[in-house]
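I would like you to sit down with the record closing this message with an eye to the fold:
=====
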Amino acid sequence: MDRRQAMDQQSQLIAQLSQSREHFVAFVGRRMSDPEFAEDVLQGSLLKAIEGAQQLRDEDRLIPWFFRTLRNAIVGA
């Protein structure tokens, strides 16, 4: 994958994840007592998702994949 394709893939990933942001905020917020820390966990997970986008084999599984990323981040927090 060349640099331009990688940038396009990242842009698409960001757009798709942004559409579900409220769901992600609620998911993390229900599991963490500190809203600011929950936001930090979400932001860190978004960065990891962007960096690891090439690992995603099936774009239709993006949202479940990201929820799994969030779960792992919450457990590790």
Remarks:
- The CA atoms of residues 45 and 63 lie 12 Å apart.
- The chain has four helices and no strands.
- The two ends are 33 Å apart (CA to CA).
- The helical segments are 3-19, 21-31, 35-51, 62-76.
